[in-house]
Amino acid sequence: xxxxxxxxxxxSVLVAAGSATAxxxxxxxxxxxxxxxxxxxxxTWETSADTPADASVxxxxxxxxxxxxxxxxxPASQAHVVDGSSGQEGPPDRTPVSYQVTLEDASGAxxxxxxTDPIMALPQFFHRGRLNVLVMLGVFTGLLFYNIWRAxxxxxxxxxxxxxxxxxMDEAIGRATEMGRPVLYVPGIEEVQDxxxxxxxLILERVAExxxxxxxxxxxxxxxxxxxxxxxxxxxxxxxxxxxxxxxxPDGIRYISNEQFAYCAGVNGIILRDRPAANFYLGRxxxxxxxxxxxxxxxxSIQIAGTAEVTQLPFFIAACDYTLxxxxxxxxxxxxxxxxxxxxxxxxxxxxKVILVLALLTGAVLESLGMSAFRDWFSVAG
Amino acid sequence: xxxxxxxxxxxVAGALMINDFFVPHRTHAAITQELxxxxxxxxxxxxxxxxxxxxxxxxxKIRRGSSEALYSIVLVGSMLxxxxxxxxxxxxxxxxxxxxxxxxxxxxxxxxxxxLLAFFITSAAYRAFRARSTEAVLLLSAxxxxxxxxxxxxxxxxxxxxxxxxxxxxxxxxxxVPNLAGKRAILMGAALGAISTGIRVILGLERAxxxxxx
Amino acid sequence: MTARRSWRERxxxxxxxxxxxxxxxxxxxxxxxxxxxPLYVSPMVQDLYDAIEDLPDGSTVLISADYDPSGKPExxxxxxxxxxxxxxxxVKMVMYSLWPAATPITEAVLAEAGLTTxxxxxxxxxxxxxxYKEGQQIAMRSIQKSLKGTFPVxxxxxxxxxxxxxxxxxxxxxxxxxxxxxxGSPGVKEYVxxxxxxxxxPMVAACTAVSGxxxxxxxxxxxLLGLAAGMKGAAEYEKLVGRPGLAMAGMSAQSASHxxxxxxxxxxxxxxxxxRRSGGAR
Lengths: 382, 214, 282
Fold this sequence. Notes:
The structure holds 3 protein chains of 3 kinds. In chain B, 79% of the residues lie in helices and 0% in strands. By secondary structure, chain B is mainly α. Chain B folds into 3 domains: 1-88, no CATH class; 94-121; 129-203, no CATH class. In chain B, helix 1 (4-22) crosses helix 2, helix 2 crosses helix 3 and helix 5 (134-150) crosses helix 7 (166-202). Chain C folds into 2 domains: 7-33 and 251-277; 43-244, Rossmann fold. In chain C, 50% of the residues lie in helices and 12% in strands. Chain C is elongated and about 75 Å long. At the A-B interface, helix 1, helix 3, helix 4, strand 11 and helix 5 of A face helix 1, helix 2, helix 4 and helix 7 of B.
């Protein structure tokens, strides 16, 4: 049987005649590399204790027609070679090949040769080492669908605790209206595929809706042109949703620079020149967070921040009036919309958190009792 | 239709990327790699959009002759100048004008902006770190211990060979135990929030970023 | 009518530019006057050094330098010492960057370390500089599929397929180690989440001081074999490599600034309590 399963029999062992050492190879195996895309076989071996430290192993592939291809020459202590990695073309899928493993001394003289039985490389459709992640994702998605279904049935009332920073957004926009000054919305400095930027875009729509209602100019400086395009669309949507498409000002959505501190200087310039009444910093931030927040403070703006970037949270908390911390930031768009199907996803996340806490407690107890199987189940294979 | 097509594209791309983690098969990997290459190309082309936005905004300001027109002239001039040097001159080697500008203008300006952080930390700490409550006192004490443990002068005052490992030992304990516990809790909550947001977007529950609204 | 502020109020709400001025003095002075201070090596940096030291001589590592001029004071000293440690072990290096401004910095670091002049490294044989790739995490994941596919040519335009060193190296796991010198995103977090946790490639990293605490969990979990955070981490690493440089020189300035910051906090609180005693605190 040669289909994908481990085939590992040493067919022949030849010790080179006249060799000064009796070094030998044992446990030579050739297996289809598990959990891979195919065209790859892993060959392993053991060397005897008297193998010279500078000995090497020459690995050759022999196809069905007898053509020999050298795969690699590696130190014997490496004990394995993957044929089909390192950018090299491996054996074709579903075609039997065998391997010849030659142990050589420093001068290249052969000490031992072992051939394996034929083996076939096969691609896998599922990575078995990641089953645990699939299970956890399945549980979470199940919770999510169940809660969305309940929300759509209208049978469930969703309580959401007050988020003071989100409530303060209205107050901040109201203040901007009274003062006749603009609102500044900084959607972080990440690319649009970052989940924090996506969350910032979701909140931006609600903010754009409110600023359009109050006829307050909205400025959105972006660090990447991709975010510019999305922010432009989101603000337009917000203005339309408010019934005020005329409130959309394309000049307010600006691309500044892709360079972090050039962007930082640009936003600081906007804060100091325009003196916005309210600054929203929502998204993924790095070193520029405190520079923005301190400049905004000096300009006398009311400031609301939100990020899941843990290292920047202390800066925002110290320098801003309100801060959305971690998951609060992701919950903000659902909170603002009050849409039951969106709120239901927050409940699913809470349930998942309960499961996570229980798993943590269980793991801590079992680990303390010297049982590591539970912990091991959570490790993800490479 | 205007809503369905973008959502469908989001769903397919999102599902393929999630699958990529679980499906090692070469054909699937080739599809996702191709998608990622498309992503790279789209990202590269958005810079044209970014430049168009910059030109549009700043030419308007220059035409209006507003008080900020001079800044706009400097900005547009710098951008075109640097781009021209990068395109028409060698941009490698120390004698290249591009590298000269990089070393003498861009490099110090960028470092200066980052260095401002130290000054802003000072003013924020002076203003915000007030012992208004027991929690604030704890926060203050921890901050002072970490700051002392982080630099050699702290170790010179109370070294790691002393009782409790000195300031470095206390700093390590604060960072590794209470700080790390809090950080992990925030990270886990944020990760669940991120997954939840991701699924909302993939399922089309949130589609403001597609311009479709709710 | 504006009431005249008392001296205490003026000190409590002092113009921040005075604080900036004092801080500037506190940073510049120790750079001029040498203050010898003991430097202890933290376990994270020791582990980083040991992990590299344990690499077999002649192995090949992948270095992603992801920082720009703003991060140079903190990261360039580490980067330089890293090249020295690797070169002394004759480790081959494949280098690239996901930050546009990083490639000129890498070139300057290689020149300063004397990689070709002092260590005799040959381009494309002992080291490869692939340059910059746009796309951040997309590029990162693309390298996981194929390095040569992601970088069809190197910095000088040589086709990757023709580079001798890359003949046997195309994905992260082909390399003995992944080393990330990072000032932010894409950087350590993205590499751990998108690459290390999936491929299991041995990884060490250097980052800015502010990001350090964010990445400690990865070190504790064994996903990072070692971590050097900020100028202090770089100074410790310079000490281990035996090449004192700018980071070690900057330690006294950093010490002085921390002491001053503590003094400001204490002073601010004294003013606050004096105000509270006189009933004016807010």
